[in-house]
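I had to read the description of the data format several times before I understood it. The format is easy to grasp once an entry is in front of the reader. For illustration, here is how one protein appears when written out as sequence plus structure tokens:
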Amino acid sequence: ELIAVSEEELWIRRREPYPCDLMESLIHQQSPMTSEACIEAVCIPFSLDKDVTSMSLNLGSKGYYLDIIAQDLGVVDASKVLISRVIGKANSEMRLYISALEANNLNPVPEFRAGKDLSCYDRSFNLRASYLLGQQVYGNVILASIGYTWRGAELFHEDVSRRAYFRMLVGKTPDGLYKLSREAILMADLPTLFSTKANWRGSLPRDLLCGICRQHQLSEPVFNVVCDSSDSDCVSSGSCRKLASDVQNLAAMETFRCEIRLFSKKQDLIIECYPKQSFRKQGDAVQYASLSVLSWFNMHFKQPDVPLEMLSLTAHGDIKCHRASFLKEFYLLELMHNVQQPDGSKGSQKLDLNHLEAQDNMIGFENKHLRISGPESGSSPSNGSFVSITYSVNLTCEGKDMPLMLESNDEFEFEIGTGAVVPCIEAALLQMTAGQSACIFMGLPPRDLIVAAALDSEEAVACVYSKSCYLEYCITLLRVMEPLEDRMEQALFNPPLSKQRVEYALMYIKEFSASSLIDFGCGSGSLLESLVGSPSSLEKIVGIDISQKGLVRAAKILHSKLEKLDVMMPTSRINTVILFEGSITVFDSRLYGYDIGTCLEVIEHMEEEQACIFGDIALGLFCPRVLIVSTPNYEYNVILQKSNIASQEDDPDEKSQLETCKFRNHDHKFEWTRAQFNHWATDLASKHNYSVEFGGVGGIADVEPGFASQVAVFRRNDHNPVKDCGECMGAEPHYKTLWEWNAMSRAS
């Protein structure tokens, strides 16, 4: 009975007037706005043919601020202005101001329309504002930060730039939200792997997931941590599922998995995540599961046209999507993706850098150009290394003398191999050593990223529309901290295990007078580099790896060393070195029947099933005379992880006395005990008519817990002739030749 409501239900007022004396005092009270103010706002037109632009709101000392906004919206007064909820940060006053004269805006529950185009919507439908708000909006819209708050009597207001609008758009995706958390829009990418909390930078996966739910008006995620006992399903316990019944029992321990469910505000179930992987810390389980969901979302946000069922099959973790509920909440995303709007993306243009080709030390790769400067000294990064760089990103345009600085950072840290930066940056760093600098030239990313990063958004937009425009990344590698596994080995073993494994391989090369060698999973070429620098009977060396980044680095190192081979080692017989890009679980007939094959510290980076497939392919099809396979001895971890170096990696707030050890590297999919490794190798040897003997490096065979790195040496039986592969010998090559060095062609 105290409140009166207007016919359109747009406003409410007190039914009985306020007392006259109170009204008089308010009328004569001095206005808080003592002078005129002009604030910056953003106009979001409904027509996609028009760009989002900056505008000014002129607030006078007299008059109601909403009446001024009403005039800019083309309506009579404040009574015809709809005000949205707060957009962006909860403590801000940033809102959308919408015309109430658009009849569709008065529908309290807009009808959900699952269409891939705008044909089923009224022509005044404002897609950009709707996507920002999460509900259908019609007509032109103003984005501004102004209003009276409980914090004081004065009218609060602050500028809202076009850059702020684009940053809000970027923050609607998991990748964009992570970029904003690192203040590195053009450098950072959402990592695909959660290694340790100590090595993670930026907002943690759990916080990012909660942020995405808030951005899209979903309920808070429901996390359910499940405690598992040590059994064959616990991936983190170090057990081998296929061989669990044949191995010794390890100490029982608790491990944890985290299940996640996402609901709409109406409590419709949208996403379920049930990861199989277990962790010894509840926090790690939560972060891993959160990243699984974020990765799934990221794939959908980047490729909304890919069927949801297919995304669930390829997702990082076990994801189940409830299609109807999901589309109801995210149909605006699909519309945004399918409409090519002026302020959408101007990416994927062909990079024209012909004027740079003549510069010294310029390397071209995948529509990108790289120039490295500085002497090769200090340590070089590899997968698992924690690096620190300084960088700047400039926008260079034809006809402009000075490039536009978009983004810079004096110290940016991340872990190599986790996907935490733009891929080409990581590829460049793998070719550098500490202290070196590099310039990388590449085409433009989507325009929203450029404008969101640029301090001067107006100049950035103008530059992007020029005929020739590209990005220049200038980076300097400040520091490299080697992976924990390498640091533990170097601290406890002299010479390091990596060097001992090379010596182990050289021993068999000399014994067999081997002339040809294949290194399965050569990575960045550490073994190949050592072989090139050691006297031996080898004439032909081949490396295979699935990582192009690692192979590019290997090629650079090997090329530098081979070019000096005549001087450094005139007795060397090496005449051919080739690097192939491909999976070691796939056969290529060109590499059939080599003298020696090596696979050092590789199989633990594969799933156990894939390691078994590799064994069959290597011994059954490649058929080297000798195959040397090494892998960590899980039982030795208790010694390695008692070192101070290992304990420094633990999170200070989560340290506890564990009953068993963790893996040496976060990228390891398994680590086998001696019994497990012996079982695997013995079965393979028997199956393919090889003999096998066991050894290792680091430690003593007969002293518990054995060698730190266990080795199996497979020898093809003399009475077993080299198999005739028949059709497979003429099969189409499966490997791509990434780099080749030939002594004869070099001499000519």
